[in-house]
Amino acid sequence: MSQDQQTTTTSWEVFLRPRRGLAHQHVGSVRATDPDMALAHARDLYTRRGDPLSLWVVRSDGVHAASPAERDPFFSNARHKPYRYPEHFAPLTRGEQDDA
Fold first, then answer.
1. Residue numbers of the domain that contains 8
2. Virtual CA dihedral for 39, 41, 46, 49, nearest 10 degrees?
3. What are phi and psi of 40, to 5 degrees?
4. CATH at 84
5. Residue 8 DSSP class
6. pLDDT tens-place string over residues 3-48
7. Cα first-last separation, the chain
8. Which of 25, 43, 56, 67 stands the most exposed, by the fewest C-beta atoms within 10 Å?
9. CA 3, 42, 29: angle at the middle one, nearest 5?
10. pLDDT, tens digit, 9 for 90 and up, residues 44-95
11. Is 87 helix (H, G, I), strand (E, B) or coil?
12. Would you call 97 helix, strand, or coil by DSSP?
């Protein structure tokens, strides 16, 4: 392995879970040569305050996401399927609730 290959850094996305019951949140990025170094950098940068439950690092080139240009077709609602929306259903009256 050449000297250039050993020192090539990669971008890593950092996700932190602050406490039980909460989801991981993207908190930033670090650059490192391997996952262990990325985790160490992430720990040093993003866990100074508090005591997080867990920390993830993911290679930036391994994250797949929809771009803002794809927003409308990707996230468009299925208006042709009205049963997916609460306004499709008639509200129950007080008498109907007692019968159920």
1. 3-99
2. 100
3. -65, -45
4. 3.10.20.520
5. -
6. 554 579 999 999 999 888 889 999 999 999 999 999 999 999 998 8
7. 72
8. 67
9. 80
10. 999 887 788 899 999 999 998 877 777 666 666 666 777 777 777 788 877 6
11. helix
12. helix
Q: Are 57 and 35 in contact (CB under 8 A)?
A: yes
How much is the pTM?
A: 0.63
> Encoding tokens for residue 46?
């993003």
φ/ψ bin of 17: left (φ > 0), alpha (ψ from -120 to 50), beta (otherwise): beta
How many structural domains comprise the chain? 1
Q: In what order do the strands lie in the sheet with 54-59?
A: 25-32, 10-17, 54-59
Specify the DSSP class assigned to residue 9. -
